[in-house]
Amino acid sequence: MIKLGVVGANGKMGQEVVKMAIAAQNIELVCAVDKLNIGQNIYNDVYIEGDLNAALKVHDVDVVVDFTQPSTVFENIKIYMENKVKSVIGTTGLSDEQIMQIKEMSKSSNTGCIIAPNFSIGAILMMKFAQEASKYFSNAEIIEFHNKKKKDAPSGTSIKTAQLMMESNNNFKLGNCEETETIKGSRGGNYNQDGKGNIQIHSVRMPGFVASQQVIFGSDGQILKIHHDTINRECYMPGVKLAVEHIFENNDFVYGLENIL
Ligand SMILES: NC(=O)c1ccc[n+]([C@@H]2O[C@H](COP(=O)([O-])OP(=O)(O)OC[C@H]3O[C@@H](n4cnc5c(N)ncnc54)[C@H](O)[C@@H]3O)[C@@H](O)[C@H]2O)c1
Questions:
Q1: Sign of the alpha-carbon torsion through 149, 210, 243, 8
Q2: Is 80 in the pocket of ligand 1 (CB under 6 A)?
Q3: Are both 157 and 255 inside the same structural domain?
Q4: How many domains does the chain have?
Q5: Atom 31 of ligand 1 has which residue's CA nearest to it?
Q6: Same structural domain for residues 226 and 133?
Q7: What's 204's domain CATH number?
Q8: Domain range spanning residue 126?
Q9: 117 lines ligand 1 (CB under 6 A)
Q10: Please, where are the H alpha helices in 110-231?
Q11: Catalytic site includes residue 227
């Protein structure tokens, strides 16, 4: 039985993880942490606690799942490593540098950690197909659509997609002429690594969307669009459960759900 802690248990994703844990045969929910609704009973004798460090010291937790917010997730991860509690990180907004630091911390503390910017299988396939298509096209841009409450932009999924695409092609062109932005930002943000890459990412935020992404490829005379829509948050839970099971059995550092599928 995997003893699970949920951090951000009061949030939209956290509530889904709580439901998944309660329904799972091999998971026991032992701890819930959030900044809001502290003291609320969420299941049997599990109450929302406000002090993460204290909660991990009191409860016997095998794995935590973190869906909190970009400004606090890095500090939370340090606490998981200090307490030697394995973690599954769904919270987005970590920089490449922070991810490298977490990899080092995971190794030096011998504490497993999985970071996945997207837990939905359809989104993983979208990224794989985009990586494959990148070999054959000269231009690529990404448009990602999220709910108005999303705090970070561009999305972790769009950055991860761009990283994978650049593994296949690090020489995408921008436009094909000298461009001028009459309104700053019109052409989106440019994702590149050490000046190589050139994938424009555009972020849309409005009510109605959960999470969608379109990767558009162009070359002379043709356009290819790869589009994924998340309809509701249940779609993430098989991936979250798989990550919890993987890190319980193993003690490695993983970035991206595709590496354990
Ligand atoms: N990886 C994925 O597949 C995936 C999918 C959806 C959302 N996300 C990401 O997950 C994160 C959470 O999304 P959400 O829609 O559930 O947001 P949300 O705002 O509904 O929930 C976040 C919760 O975390 C709590 N919180 C904030 N700081 C905290 C801290 N330091 N300690 C404990 N609790 C804290 C908040 O009070 C809130 O209840 C975002 O970064 C989002 O982009 C990732």
A1: positive
A2: no
A3: no
A4: 2
A5: 72
A6: yes
A7: 3.30.360.10
A8: 121-230
A9: yes
A10: 121-133, 156-168
A11: no
Q: In whole angstroms, give the CA distance from residue 33 to residue 159.
A: 28
- Shared-domain flag, residues 182 and 78: no
Q: Which residues contact 191 (CB under 8 A, 6 or more apart)?
A: 154, 158, 159, 162, 197, 198, 199, 200, 201
- Looking up residue 76, the CATH number of its domain turns out to be 3.40.50.720
Give 106: exposed, middle or buried? Use CB within 10 Å, 0-12, 13-18, 19+. buried
Task: Give CA separation, 52 vs 12, 16, 102, 125, 127, in Å.
Answer: 19, 20, 18, 34, 33
CA of 201 to the centre of ligand 1 (A): 22
**Going residue by residue through the chain (261 aa), what tens digit of pLDDT does each one get?**
999 999 999 999 999 999 999 999 999 999 999 999 999 999 999 999 999 999 999 999 999 999 999 999 999 999 999 999 999 999 999 998 999 999 999 999 999 999 998 999 999 999 999 999 999 999 999 999 999 999 899 999 999 999 999 999 988 987 767 888 999 999 999 998 887 878 999 999 999 999 999 999 999 999 999 999 999 999 999 999 999 999 999 999 999 998 998
Residues 160 and 130 placed together within one structural domain of the fold = yes
Find the 35 Cα to ligand 1 centroid distance in Å.
11
Q: Looking at the structure, do residues 39 and 126 belong to the same domain, yes or no?
A: no
Q: CB count, 10 Å around CB of 165?
A: 26
Count of positions (residues) in the chain: 261
What is the Cα–Cα distance from 83 to 226, expressed in whole angstroms? 42
